[in-house]
Design the sequence.
C-alpha cells in the first residue's frame, strides 16, 4: 500500500469517509513524513504534534474530516499567533476567519507553512526559519511568499495547504514547485486574524497538486460549492507584451503548447493602462505597509528591513493618482473579461532561480526576480479578481513551469474548470510529475 | 551624512524608528527604485482617469 500522502486530497478524504483509512493513523504517518523529508526543503518548520491530535478529536464531520493540511504563518490559530515569517507574535492566537472555515470542513492543521518574511518577497529566501528550498532542486528557491505551502505539497508532505497572495504569493511558488495555486477573489472569506486584512491586495489561497483538490479545498475555504462544468471550448485572452514576449523562451513555448493542447480559442487582448499597473500597485502597497515597531525591525533580515523602511518614505501624494489608475485598470479588465472567459500568461517568466541568485535572465536582460515575478501576478491583486497557476511541465533545467489564468470576480469555479480540462487534455502529464525528493 | 540620509533619518526619528546607519545604502537604493516607478503617476491625464469608488470584491459597476 502506498503512503497516504502520495494520494490526492480527494483520495484521502474519500478513504477516511469509507473507513478504509484511519484519521489518527493518517495524522501519525503525515507527521512522520514531514520529520523524515522536510530537513531538505524547510517547508514546515513547526509541527503541531499535540495540538493536531487534539484538533482531530474535536474535528467536525465534514467533506475533509481528518485530512491534514499546513497553514501559512499569516493566519492565527487558536493555539498559535501569526508571525508572518518573523520571530514575533504579530496577531494574537485565535481562530482566524479562514481557519474557522477550514476547521468547519473537518481539516486538521498539522503544522505551520514557512513563508518569506512579512510576505515581502517572491523567492522564499528570507524567513525567521531559514530559506525554503525547492523539492525539484534544493539548490533553488521554492518561491514566495507562500514557499513552504508549495514545497510541502510538491514534496508530498501534505496534499493541501492554506496560503495567501498579496502580489502573487500563492501563484508564484506554485509555479516554481510544479503544483496548483489558486488565489481567491478579494474579500471572499472573513479576514479577521489574517494579515491580508491590512491591505487591499491580499486574498487567501490554496495550494494543492491538481485542480480537483484545489476545488475541494477552496470550496471548504469559501464555504460554498464550486460546481464543475466543462472547461473545453473556452475563449482565452492573451496579452503578448510583456507577459509572453519577455518570458524565457522555453516557458513561453510550454505555455503556447498548453493552450494548443487545451484547444481553447486564443484571442489577442490589449489591456488599457497596463503600463501603469506597477506604479499604482507600488504606491498603495507602500502606504498600506504602515509603520513597523522597533521590536519587529530589529528581528528582520537587512533586505526586508530596508524594504519596509524605504516604503515609509514613499510620498503619499501619489496615492490619489494611483487609485484613479487602479479604477481605470479594473474597468479595462472587466471590459476584456466580457469578451473572453479568462486571461492567460506564464505565471513566472523564468523557472526558480538558485537560492543565492537575486535576478533572472529574460529577453529584456537581467531583471531582479521579484520585479519580474510581480509584474506577472500583480494584476489580480490590483483588481481583486481570482487567479490560478497550473503546472505545464519541466524546463531543461529540470525545474517546473506554470501557466496563470485570471477570471472575473467570483470566477474561481471557471478557473478550476479550465485547470481540470487542461489536466485531462494532457493526460495529467504535468500534475502527476513527482520531484526527485518524493520518488 | 548624505542629503538622503539626513532627510530619511529625520523622518524615522519623527516616527521613533531606530535605524542602523549601515542600512541607509540599501534603503536609498530601494527608495530610488520606488520613486522612479511612482513618477509615472505624475504624467497621467486626470481627465482620462476619473476618481471612482471601488469595491474590490466585485466587478466595477460601470462594466
Sequence:
Amino acid at each position: 500500500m502506498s503512503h497516504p500522502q502520495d494520494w490526492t486530497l480527494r483520495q484521502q478524504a474519500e478513504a477516511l469517509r469509507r473507513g478504509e483509512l484511519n484519521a489518527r493513523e493518517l495524522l501519525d504517518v503525515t507527521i512522520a513524513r514531514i520529520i523524515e523529508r522536510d530537513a531538505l526543503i524547510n517547508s514546515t518548520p513547526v509541527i503541531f504534534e499535540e495540538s493536531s491530535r487534539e484538533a482531530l478529536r474535536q474535528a467536525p464531520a465534514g467533506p475533509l474530516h481528518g485530512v491534514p493540511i499546513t497553514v501559512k504563518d499569516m493566519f492565527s490559530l487558536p493555539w498559535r499567533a501569526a508571525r508572518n515569517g518573523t520571530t514575533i507574535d504579530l496577531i494574537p492566537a485565535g481562530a482566524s476567519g479562514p481557519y474557522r472555515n477550514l476547521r468547519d470542513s473537518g481539516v486538521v492543521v498539522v503544522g505551520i507553512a514557512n513563508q518569506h518574511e512579512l510576505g515581502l518577497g517572491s523567492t522564499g529566501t528570507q524567513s525567521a526559519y531559514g530559506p525554503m528550498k525547492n523539492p525539484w532542486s534544493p539548490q533553488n528557491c521554492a518561491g514566495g511568499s507562500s514557499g513552504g505551502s508549495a514545497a510541502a505539497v510538491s514534496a508530498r508532505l501534505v496534499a493541501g495547504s492554506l496560503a495567501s497572495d498579496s502580489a502573487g504569493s500563492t501563484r508564484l511558488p506554485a509555479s516554481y514547485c510544479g503544483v496548483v495555486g489558486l488565489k481567491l477573489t478579494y474579500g471572499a472569506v472573513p479576514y479577521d486574524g489574517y494579515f491580508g486584512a491590512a491591505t487591499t491586495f491580499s486574498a487567501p489561497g490554496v495550494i494543492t497538486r491538481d485542480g480537483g483538490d484545489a476545488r475541494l479545498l477552496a470550496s471548504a475555504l469559501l464555504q460554498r460549492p464550486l460546481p464543475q462544468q466543462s472547461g473545453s471550448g473556452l475563449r482565452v485572452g492573451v496579452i503578448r507584451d510583456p507577459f509572453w514576449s519577455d518570458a524565457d523562451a522555453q516557458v513561453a513555448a510550454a505555455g503556447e503548447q498548453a493552450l494548443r493542447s487545451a484547444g481553447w480559442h486564443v484571442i489577442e487582448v490589449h489591456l488599457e493602462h497596463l503600463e501603469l499597473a506597477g506604479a499604482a500597485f507600488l504606491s498603495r502597497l507602500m502606504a498600506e505597509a504602515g509603520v513597523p515597531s522597533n521590536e519587529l525591525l530589529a528581528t528582520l533580515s537587512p533586505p526586508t528591513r530596508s524594504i519596509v523602511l524605504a516604503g515609509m518614505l514613499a510620498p503619499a501624494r501619489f496615492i490619489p493618482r494611483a487609485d484613479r489608475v487602479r479604477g481605470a485598470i479594473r474597468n479595462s479588465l472587466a471590459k476584456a473579461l466580457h469578451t473572453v472567459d479568462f486571461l492567460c500568461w506564464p505565471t513566472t517568466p523564468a523557472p526558480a532561480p538558485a537560492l543565492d541568485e537575486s535576478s533572472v535572465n529574460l529577453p529584456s536582460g537581467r531583471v531582479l526576480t521579484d520585479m519580474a515575478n510581480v509584474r506577472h501576478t500583480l494584476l489580480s491583486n490590483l483588481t481583486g479578481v481570482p487567479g490560478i497557476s497550473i503546472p505545464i511541465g519541466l524546463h531543461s533545467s529540470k525545474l517546473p513551469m506554470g501557466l496563470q489564468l485570471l477570471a472575473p470576480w467570483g470566477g474561481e469555479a471557471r478557473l478550476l474548470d479550465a485547470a481540470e480540462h487542461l489536466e485531462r487534455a494532457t493526460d495529467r502529464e504535468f500534475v502527476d510529475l513527482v520531484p526527485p525528493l518524493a520518488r | 551624512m548624505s542629503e538622503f540620509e539626513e532627510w530619511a533619518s529625520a523622518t524615522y526619528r519623527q516616527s521613533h524608528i531606530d535605524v542602523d546607519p549601515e542600512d541607509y545604502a540599501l534603503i536609498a537604493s530601494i527608495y530610488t527604485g520606488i520613486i522612479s516607478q511612482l513618477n509615472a503617476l505624475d504624467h497621467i491625464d486626470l481627465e482620462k482617469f476619473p476618481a471612482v469608488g471601488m469595491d474590490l470584491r466585485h466587478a466595477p459597476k460601470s462594466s
